[in-house]
Amino acid sequence: MEKEYLNESSILYPSDYPEQLRQIPDMPEKLWLRGTMPPEAFRLLAVVGSRALSRYGRDMCRSLIAGLSGYPVSIVSGLAIGADACAHQNALEAGLHTIAIPGSGLADSVLYPRQNRFLAQQILAHGGTLLSEHEPQYKPHPFDFPSRNRIMAGLSHAVLIIEAGKKSGTLITARLAVDYSRDVLCVPHRISDPHSFGASHYLREGAAYVRDSLDILEALGISPRSDDPLLVQSAASTGASARHDKAIQNLSNEERKLYGLLEAPRSRDWVIRESSLPAQKILVLLVTLELKGFIQEKHGEWMRLL
Hints:
By secondary structure, the protein is of the alpha/beta class.
């Protein structure tokens, strides 16, 4: 579905909706649209999170969306301050299509929040979309925001939680995503971080753990390009790990045992005390492993180099 209405809103009916939105039990009777919808082949990713987005949340949002550049992905969010605005802005910077679903109508005079009206204009200018189930001049009420969250979850193929506290509206979107059988993806946080509640809760419920953009592509069913920097980096890391394992296998049993003791820097006396081998044998093994490039002595302690 590719429709374009830059200045005036047009009405879409269920027959015009993407297939996934027609699947939800409470789909809107109609939608007002400004801008251009993405091609049907695109995968839609809803990005949600705290309005008081932390620095860590902003960095992760930027990094994950930047890693999707060049792929057939559209970023869906709610145009709110915090995570929503961060998602839309980084989508624009990455050259991705983005869909904003505010709780208001789509007329410039009522677009909410007011401070993101320029962002809405940028979305339209770059070929993106504004969607709402409300008439163009409709001014939002508090109950409109949970209602619009169902459109975000229903429209998308997966929902990415950047961060969410215990009372965050993000949890409404995540719960709806589960009800609609959408994949829920979570950015992990420190356990003590108040923003970690949402991710921790849904990870316990079986949500996907997101480390980088490759995890998002996998959830969306998109194969990464062979020259994707993250894929190249991952392959290099895997190759280094394989070479390390092969090198360890070439050690003698006694050398592997001694190497295993050095998970952390240890003094020679500690190694002798913890090993069942004679002290003289330990000294020979330490020197042998050092000559092979596996360990070194520094400040009176032996430590791994590999």
